[in-house]
């Protein structure tokens, strides 16, 4: 036990001199968590809270064009700027840039006549199908001039689809309103009362959104719940920069060979490094989680809500940290130089993070990547953390993720042992 303690003290002293490694293990993850959480939180606010600037060029001087603008405004998704009717179309891109607008909508001149003619045609055919008096001939629809949506190239396709869906909903309201007016007028020979029109068109069944939670809670996940666990896991595996280099230095200096002539074992050294850097992994987790809980609310970010099952959180952190330390030692054993350990270690962690769901959500990956994703230890660690933070689960709910991560860790330990034997280091 004394030999193990002395070796741990030695490793901590060596680590305290590795300033670059300490920066990579603490300063870089902290900055990464704050920056990425801020960016993602701004995206959430743009989608959920802030309004999108929408420039509308209304070339239609009749009623339906104005009704469309009012309907779009009622959606609550847009901050609308209506251009004067004589505005030149070629000036819209310049105005979008000047007004910092991402989208612009052009309403054609014959928009009202098109809506009214289509409504009369549909109402007449509906009355005929009901056996009532109606137009026996279909109305001649005017040539269709589509609504034109201008968008900034930076706008992603998924975001454009959301905007298109909102505009199509507004169009459906306008068209449905006009069809109901024509049907009521044909049946009762008078205009439809405003209250009845509102009941027909605007009495939708309400929708209540409830996040799925294993624990039965209804806390809405925020950007902190997504990012803090993910990038804490990323920080753990970046221990490879310091630990991998340390193993390479000891190989080059002959420490492993000298151990064979002393009354001690290589297992003492490996246990020492694993215990030392496992403590570092716990410190990383504690620091980053503390920032999420206490610092984030003071810099305008949502606070990190800790899971109810703290025991499961400690166990997940322990297994994730052990896996990260095991992988780092494995890289150090097979690398011939510190440059190889640093380069391969950093690049491999980024690749494992990418296929593991940290950079791109796992549900967005193609099916061909799913087998690779399950080979990444970061995937199982992330799923375990998300099961606690996002789904409100407990130890039983994430046990499969923990067991999968434990199997990968033991496999890495076996590969490390075989590598040491092959290189005659033990």
Task: Give the arrangement of secondary structure elements.
Elements: H1 2-17, H2 19-48, E1 52-58, H3 63-75, E2 78-83, H4 92-98, E3 103-107, H5 111-129, E4 148-151, H6 157-188, H7 194-201, H8 223-237, H9 240-253, H10 255-259, H11 266-295, H12 310-334, H13 338-356, H14 370-375, H15 377-389, H16 399-422
Parallel strand pairs: 1-2, 1-3
Antiparallel strand pairs: 3-4
Helix pairs in contact: 1-11, 2-8, 2-11, 3-6, 5-6, 8-11, 8-15, 9-12, 9-13, 11-12, 12-13, 12-15, 12-16, 13-15, 15-16
Q: What are the secondary-structure elements, in order, as H or E?
A: HHEHEHEHEHHHHHHHHHHH
Average per-residue pLDDT, rounded, comes to 79
Tally the structural domains: 2
Strand line-up in the sheet with most strands = 2-1-3-4
Give the end-to-end Cα distance, rounded to a whole number of Å.
20 Å
- The tally of beta strands, per DSSP, is 4
- Describe the largest sheet: 4 strands, mixed
Helical percentage: 55-70%
Compute the number of helices.
16
- Shape by Cα distribution: elongated
Instruction: Give the structural class.
Output: mainly alpha
Strand content: 5-15%
Q: What is the radius of gyration?
A: 32 Å
Runs in which pLDDT lies below 50 for 5 or more consecutive residues are: none
């Amino acid at each position: 036990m004394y030999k193990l303690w002395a070796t741990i003290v030695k490793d901590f002293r060596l680590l305290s001199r590795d300033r670059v490694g300490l920066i990579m293990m603490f300063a870089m993850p902290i900055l990464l968590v704050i920056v990425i959480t801020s960016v993602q939180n701004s995206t959430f606010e743009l989608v959920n809270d802030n309004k999108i600037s929408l420039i509308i060029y209304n070339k239609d001087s009749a009623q339906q064009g104005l009704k469309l603008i009012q309907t779009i405004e009622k959606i609550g998704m847009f901050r609308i700027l209506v251009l004067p009717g004589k505005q030149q179309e070629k000036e819209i891109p310049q105005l979008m840039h000047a007004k910092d607008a991402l989208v612009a909508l052009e309403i054609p001149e014959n928009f009202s006549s098109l809506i009214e003619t289509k409504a009369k045609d549909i109402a007449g055919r509906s009355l005929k199908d009901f056996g009532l008096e109606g137009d026996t001939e279909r109305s001649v629809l005017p040539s269709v001039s589509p609504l034109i949506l201008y968008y900034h190239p930076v706008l992603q396709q998924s975001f454009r689809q959301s905007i298109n869906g909102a505009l199509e909903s507004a169009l459906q309201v306008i068209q449905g309103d006009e069809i109901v007016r024509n049907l009521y007028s044909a049946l009762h020979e008078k205009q439809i009362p405003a209250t009845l029109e509102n009941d027909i068109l605007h009495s939708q069944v309400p929708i209540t959104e409830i996040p799925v939670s294993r624990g039965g809670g209804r806390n809405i996940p925020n950007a902190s719940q997504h990012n803090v666990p993910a990038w804490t896991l990323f920080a753990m595996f970046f221990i490879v920069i310091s630990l991998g280099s340390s193993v390479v230095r000891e190989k080059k200096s002959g420490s492993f060979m000298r151990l064979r002539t002393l009354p001690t074992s290589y297992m003492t050294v490996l246990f020492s490094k694993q215990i030392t850097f496992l403590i570092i992994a716990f410190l990383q987790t504690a620091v980053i989680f503390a920032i999420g809980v206490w610092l984030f609310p003071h810099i305008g970010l949502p606070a990190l809500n800790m899971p109810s099952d703290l025991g499961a959180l400690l166990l997940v952190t322990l297994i994730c940290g052990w896996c990260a330390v095991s992988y780092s030692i494995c890289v150090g054993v097979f690398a011939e130089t510190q440059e190889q350990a640093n380069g391969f270690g950093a690049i491999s962690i980024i690749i494992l993070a990418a296929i593991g769901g940290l950079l791109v959500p796992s549900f967005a990956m193609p099916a061909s990547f799913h087998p690779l994703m399950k080979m990444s230890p970061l995937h199982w660690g992330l799923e375990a953390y998300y099961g606690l933070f996002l789904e409100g689960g407990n130890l039983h709910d994430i046990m499969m993720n923990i067991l999968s991560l434990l199997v990968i860790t033991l496999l890495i330990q076996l590969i490390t042992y075989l590598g040491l034997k092959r290189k005659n280091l033990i």
